[in-house]
Specification:
7-stranded mixed sheet, mainly beta, 4-stranded antiparallel sheet, 122 residues
Length: 122
């Protein structure tokens, strides 16, 4: 049984930093594309940052230069380092995994975590 468990969310002031973690079990992260999505209440879930099994990454324009995605395959853990946080980064952040990059990129990943809340205040 695959499980993705996020942690590291919280409240931070504008300009601050947070690092999210996603611990995966039941799958080998080396062979999966994984990523972070966020969702604001009332809006659709959107991709934030993705990384494939070879370490190739993708970022939403809104976070380029501020967020960094990484994956430790030895620990089966995905990370999202978030710097220079803005109020508009406030959202629930979800970890996702799929064996197919395009399925993940489309937001239709097979596996999802429960989410961790990030709140950025002025």
């Amino acid at each position: 049984q695959v499980q993705l468990v996020e942690s590291g969310g919280g409240s931070v002031q504008t300009g601050g930093s947070l690092t999210l973690s996603c611990a995966a079990s039941g799958l080998n992260s080396k062979y999966y594309s994984m990523g972070w999505f966020h969702q604001v209440t009332g809006k659709e879930r959107e991709g934030v940052a993705l990384i494939d099994g070879d370490g190739v990454d993708w970022y939403a324009d809104s976070v380029k230069g501020r967020f960094t995605i990484s994956k430790d395959n030895a620990k089966n853990t995905l990370y999202l380092e978030m710097n220079s946080l803005k109020f508009e980064d406030t959202a629930m952040y979800y970890c996702a995994a799929d064996s197919n990059w395009y399925t993940l990129r489309a937001g239709n990943a097979r596996y999802w975590g429960q989410g961790t809340q990030v709140t950025v205040s002025a």
